[in-house]
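seq:
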Amino acid sequence: MKLIGLTGNIGSGKTTAASYLETKGYYVLSFDKLGKELLLPSNAVFQRLVATFGKEILTEAGRIDRKKLAYIAFQNEEKYKLLNHITHKAITQRAQEQVARIYETVKDAIVILDIPLLFESKKYNTLNFIVFISSKEEIREERLCSYRNFTVEEARMRMKKQMQEEEKIKRAQFVVYNNTTKEAMYLQLDKATAYFSAVNDCHNALFF
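struct:
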Protein backbone atom coordinates (compact mmCIF):
# COMPACT_ATOMS: atom_id res chain seq x y z
CA MET A 1 0.00 0.00 0.00
CA LYS A 2 1.12 3.52 -0.77
CA LEU A 3 -0.06 6.52 1.21
CA ILE A 4 0.11 9.83 -0.63
CA GLY A 5 -0.32 13.07 1.28
CA LEU A 6 -2.23 15.77 -0.57
CA THR A 7 -2.08 19.20 0.99
CA GLY A 8 -2.21 22.90 0.23
CA ASN A 9 -2.91 26.11 2.05
CA ILE A 10 -6.47 27.34 2.34
CA GLY A 11 -7.89 28.47 -1.00
CA SER A 12 -5.25 26.62 -3.01
CA GLY A 13 -7.69 24.28 -4.75
CA LYS A 14 -6.68 21.17 -2.80
CA THR A 15 -10.26 19.93 -2.52
CA THR A 16 -10.72 20.28 -6.28
CA ALA A 17 -7.51 18.30 -6.78
CA ALA A 18 -8.76 15.58 -4.40
CA SER A 19 -12.06 15.32 -6.27
CA TYR A 20 -10.20 14.95 -9.55
CA LEU A 21 -7.99 12.17 -8.18
CA GLU A 22 -11.08 10.37 -6.93
CA THR A 23 -12.52 10.38 -10.46
CA LYS A 24 -9.27 8.74 -11.62
CA GLY A 25 -9.98 5.77 -9.37
CA TYR A 26 -7.79 6.50 -6.36
CA TYR A 27 -8.98 6.00 -2.80
CA VAL A 28 -9.31 9.48 -1.29
CA LEU A 29 -9.73 10.13 2.42
CA SER A 30 -10.63 13.72 3.20
CA PHE A 31 -9.71 14.84 6.70
CA ASP A 32 -12.15 17.74 6.31
CA LYS A 33 -15.03 15.33 5.70
CA LEU A 34 -13.97 13.14 8.61
CA GLY A 35 -13.86 16.25 10.77
CA LYS A 36 -17.41 17.19 9.80
CA GLU A 37 -18.60 13.72 10.83
CA LEU A 38 -17.00 14.17 14.23
CA LEU A 39 -19.01 17.36 14.78
CA LEU A 40 -22.31 15.47 14.88
CA PRO A 41 -24.07 15.70 18.28
CA SER A 42 -23.73 11.94 18.80
CA ASN A 43 -19.94 12.16 18.82
CA ALA A 44 -17.75 12.72 21.88
CA VAL A 45 -15.79 15.41 20.00
CA PHE A 46 -18.99 17.45 19.74
CA GLN A 47 -19.42 17.35 23.51
CA ARG A 48 -15.81 18.36 24.15
CA LEU A 49 -16.00 21.29 21.76
CA VAL A 50 -19.21 22.63 23.32
CA ALA A 51 -17.72 22.22 26.80
CA THR A 52 -14.54 24.03 25.71
CA PHE A 53 -15.88 26.83 23.52
CA GLY A 54 -19.37 27.28 24.93
CA LYS A 55 -22.88 27.04 23.54
CA GLU A 56 -22.37 30.16 21.43
CA ILE A 57 -20.79 27.89 18.78
CA LEU A 58 -24.15 26.15 18.30
CA THR A 59 -26.82 26.97 15.75
CA GLU A 60 -30.48 27.26 16.71
CA ALA A 61 -30.85 23.64 15.63
CA GLY A 62 -28.19 22.57 18.14
CA ARG A 63 -25.47 21.83 15.60
CA ILE A 64 -21.95 23.24 15.66
CA ASP A 65 -21.58 26.29 13.46
CA ARG A 66 -18.20 25.55 11.89
CA LYS A 67 -17.65 29.10 10.72
CA LYS A 68 -18.41 30.54 14.15
CA LEU A 69 -16.19 27.97 15.86
CA ALA A 70 -13.34 28.75 13.49
CA TYR A 71 -13.73 32.49 14.00
CA ILE A 72 -13.49 32.12 17.79
CA ALA A 73 -10.51 29.77 17.56
CA PHE A 74 -8.60 31.85 15.03
CA GLN A 75 -8.87 34.95 17.23
CA ASN A 76 -6.78 33.35 19.97
CA GLU A 77 -3.64 31.23 19.62
CA GLU A 78 -4.38 29.09 22.66
CA LYS A 79 -7.93 28.39 21.51
CA TYR A 80 -6.63 27.56 18.04
CA LYS A 81 -4.20 25.01 19.47
CA LEU A 82 -6.93 23.61 21.70
CA LEU A 83 -9.29 23.17 18.73
CA ASN A 84 -6.61 21.29 16.82
CA HIS A 85 -5.77 19.16 19.84
CA ILE A 86 -9.39 18.08 20.29
CA THR A 87 -10.11 17.36 16.65
CA HIS A 88 -6.91 16.15 15.01
CA LYS A 89 -6.32 13.08 17.15
CA ALA A 90 -9.88 11.87 16.59
CA ILE A 91 -9.70 12.55 12.84
CA THR A 92 -6.37 10.73 12.51
CA GLN A 93 -7.70 7.71 14.41
CA ARG A 94 -10.74 7.49 12.13
CA ALA A 95 -8.55 7.81 9.04
CA GLN A 96 -6.26 5.06 10.31
CA GLU A 97 -9.26 2.78 10.68
CA GLN A 98 -10.36 3.46 7.11
CA VAL A 99 -6.84 2.88 5.77
CA ALA A 100 -6.75 -0.47 7.57
CA ARG A 101 -10.08 -1.48 6.02
CA ILE A 102 -8.83 -0.59 2.54
CA TYR A 103 -5.64 -2.60 3.12
CA GLU A 104 -7.64 -5.67 4.11
CA THR A 105 -9.32 -5.60 0.71
CA VAL A 106 -6.64 -4.18 -1.61
CA LYS A 107 -3.10 -4.76 -0.40
CA ASP A 108 -1.50 -2.68 -3.16
CA ALA A 109 -3.95 0.21 -2.98
CA ILE A 110 -2.84 3.81 -3.47
CA VAL A 111 -4.60 5.99 -0.92
CA ILE A 112 -4.67 9.77 -1.17
CA LEU A 113 -4.84 11.45 2.23
CA ASP A 114 -6.34 14.91 1.77
CA ILE A 115 -4.93 16.68 4.84
CA PRO A 116 -5.13 20.50 5.14
CA LEU A 117 -2.58 20.85 7.94
CA LEU A 118 -0.29 18.00 6.97
CA PHE A 119 3.01 19.76 7.65
CA GLU A 120 1.72 21.64 10.69
CA SER A 121 0.66 18.36 12.30
CA LYS A 122 4.07 16.77 11.57
CA LYS A 123 2.40 13.56 10.35
CA TYR A 124 4.14 13.41 7.01
CA ASN A 125 7.37 11.49 7.62
CA THR A 126 5.84 8.03 7.15
CA LEU A 127 4.01 8.85 3.91
CA ASN A 128 5.41 7.61 0.61
CA PHE A 129 4.96 10.88 -1.27
CA ILE A 130 3.52 14.32 -0.69
CA VAL A 131 1.78 16.46 -3.31
CA PHE A 132 1.50 20.14 -2.45
CA ILE A 133 -1.00 22.37 -4.26
CA SER A 134 0.50 25.84 -4.59
CA SER A 135 -1.38 29.01 -5.44
CA LYS A 136 -0.52 32.69 -5.18
CA GLU A 137 -1.70 34.44 -2.02
CA GLU A 138 -3.85 37.00 -3.83
CA ILE A 139 -5.57 34.26 -5.82
CA ARG A 140 -6.28 32.25 -2.69
CA GLU A 141 -7.73 35.31 -0.98
CA GLU A 142 -9.98 35.99 -3.96
CA ARG A 143 -11.23 32.40 -4.00
CA LEU A 144 -12.04 32.47 -0.30
CA CYS A 145 -14.03 35.68 -0.66
CA SER A 146 -15.77 34.72 -3.91
CA TYR A 147 -16.55 31.05 -3.39
CA ARG A 148 -16.69 30.65 0.37
CA ASN A 149 -18.13 34.03 1.30
CA PHE A 150 -15.27 34.98 3.59
CA THR A 151 -14.65 38.60 4.39
CA VAL A 152 -11.17 39.83 3.52
CA GLU A 153 -10.42 39.90 7.26
CA GLU A 154 -11.52 36.29 7.71
CA ALA A 155 -9.56 35.12 4.68
CA ARG A 156 -6.35 36.81 5.79
CA MET A 157 -6.76 35.58 9.37
CA ARG A 158 -7.07 31.97 8.17
CA MET A 159 -4.17 32.29 5.75
CA LYS A 160 -1.92 33.84 8.37
CA LYS A 161 -2.34 30.83 10.69
CA GLN A 162 -0.84 28.43 8.17
CA MET A 163 2.80 27.72 7.45
CA GLN A 164 4.17 29.73 4.54
CA GLU A 165 4.07 28.05 1.12
CA GLU A 166 7.83 28.36 0.68
CA GLU A 167 8.42 26.06 3.66
CA LYS A 168 5.91 23.48 2.46
CA ILE A 169 7.31 23.44 -1.07
CA LYS A 170 10.71 22.45 0.37
CA ARG A 171 9.16 19.40 2.06
CA ALA A 172 6.93 18.11 -0.74
CA GLN A 173 8.03 15.66 -3.43
CA PHE A 174 5.61 17.14 -5.97
CA VAL A 175 4.44 20.73 -6.30
CA VAL A 176 1.35 21.38 -8.41
CA TYR A 177 0.74 25.02 -9.32
CA ASN A 178 -2.89 26.12 -9.45
CA ASN A 179 -2.80 29.72 -10.64
CA THR A 180 -4.60 29.43 -13.96
CA THR A 181 -7.14 26.76 -14.99
CA LYS A 182 -8.32 23.50 -13.46
CA GLU A 183 -7.19 21.70 -16.58
CA ALA A 184 -3.64 22.95 -16.12
CA MET A 185 -3.68 21.64 -12.55
CA TYR A 186 -5.08 18.28 -13.68
CA LEU A 187 -2.22 17.80 -16.16
CA GLN A 188 0.31 18.30 -13.37
CA LEU A 189 -1.58 15.88 -11.12
CA ASP A 190 -1.53 13.29 -13.88
CA LYS A 191 2.27 13.53 -14.08
CA ALA A 192 2.62 13.17 -10.31
CA THR A 193 0.28 10.17 -10.08
CA ALA A 194 1.95 8.48 -13.05
CA TYR A 195 5.24 8.67 -11.18
CA PHE A 196 4.18 7.39 -7.78
CA SER A 197 1.98 4.71 -9.35
CA ALA A 198 5.00 3.31 -11.21
CA VAL A 199 7.46 3.36 -8.30
CA ASN A 200 7.79 -0.02 -6.60
CA ASP A 201 10.80 0.42 -4.34
CA CYS A 202 9.08 2.31 -1.54
CA HIS A 203 8.01 1.14 1.90
CA ASN A 204 4.57 -0.32 2.52
CA ALA A 205 2.91 2.57 4.34
CA LEU A 206 0.09 1.56 6.67
CA PHE A 207 0.28 4.07 9.47
CA PHE A 208 0.81 7.82 9.73
